Amino acid sequence: MRNVNPQKEGVMALATFIGVGTATFVLACATIALVAATGFLGLFTRRLVQEARAARAEARKTREEMEHARLLGVRPRLAFDVMVLGGKVGLLLIRNIGGGPALDVDLTLEFEGAVAETRSWGEPSIVPGESHEIKLPSPFLQDIAAAKDQPLTVRVTGRLSDLETREIAVDERLDFSAWWSGAAGADERVGGRWKLPGVDPSTYGVRQPARAA
Question: What is the pTM of this model?
Answer without folding.
Answer: 0.62
